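Write out the 3D structure for:
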Amino acid sequence: MILLSLFLTFFQIGAFTFGGGYAMIPLIQSEVLARNWLTEETLINFIAVSESTPGPFAINIATYIGSELGGVLGSACATLGVVLPSFLIILLVARFFEKFKENPIVSGCMSGLKPAVIGLIGSAVLSIGQTVFFPTGVALSVLYELRTYVSLGIAILMTVLAFRKVHPIAIILISALLGILAGIWV
């Protein structure tokens, strides 16, 4: 039963997410937490690992969640579920896109999807940020925790490095090293 549930859940996620892996984080979060498949902290860790490992985020996160819940077959079902809708949609779009790319309805639809994708990515940033910076909720006591400031400092530093066009691998390695050091001393 879990294998079918993994396939159908990730098929739905794959079918209704536009804009790539980051845009699907809110939907993954909603579906996985609603089914009590993972805790929020475990999901955040899976997101971090999925971002850090080679390959598309969507495939990585589906594979990790599927593996956690159903082993190798769970990985296969979740991964197939998240990939299949895109594969089918691309086949369909490729067949008809040249005919309809100048159509005002198609053009308008594509223009309308861009802000929605930005909103979904922003929602993921806020949701993950809340879990990372305020794991026990927003309270005045959190403002006195050194962990909050260390995490915020690392995030700001990595953002500055990204804007300065530092290679993403270097940013991942630096943030991992800073995280390890913070975990030891904080």
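Residues 135-186 form one domain.
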